[in-house]
Amino acid sequence: DLFIGAPLFMDRGSDGKLQEVGQVSICLQRASGGFQITKLNGFEIFARFSSSIAPLGDLDQDGFNDIAVAAPYGGEDKRGLVYIYNGRASGLNAVPSQILEGQWAARTMPPSFGYSLKGATDVDKNGYPDLIVGAFGVDTAVLYRARPVIRVNAALEVNPTILNPENKACSLSDVKVSW
């Protein structure tokens, strides 16, 4: 599989004018041969969506690999965003499951959170891949630690499936009720 970043990609906005939004082209190899090509466009102009892309491994332990895509000048304050996309059987989910915002300790730090990414490394040795995010011109990085995901599935079965409202007989064996 191949992920190609085009941070200067331009697309037509709703007004018909070209806008720089960035794009990731995803080339997934198929077992039958050939490639399935899909594209993810950025969400805001001049954010440089796809400046860096990192494989994350299987964050949610669903059997499909996930990726991180940075927009180092994205967000309300233009300090940078990193989008987490989850893999699935048909490819990559087109909607990010999580968006990380640039969070630096001092205001003197430059924008560009996500300028560099390193994923698929289990830094804390808990069995889940972590993500390291850096910015341009700083000697600091942020470590995002992955943790276990709990999935709960419940089912309700009614037996019999149809109840007769006319049948008012109810019996409980070996039950004593006192008032």
UniProtKB/TrEMBL annotation:
A Pfam family annotated for this chain is FG-GAP
Gene3D superfamilies per UniProt: Integrin alpha, N-terminal
Which keywords does the record carry?
A: Glycoprotein, Repeat, Signal
Q: Name one GO molecular function term.
A: integrin binding
| Residue stretches of each FG-GAP repeat | 36-94, 98-161
Q: Please cite one Gene Ontology biological process associated with this protein.
A: integrin-mediated signaling pathway
GO cellular component labels: external side of plasma membrane; integrin complex
- Provide the protein name: ITAV protein
Q: Which gene encodes it?
A: Itgav
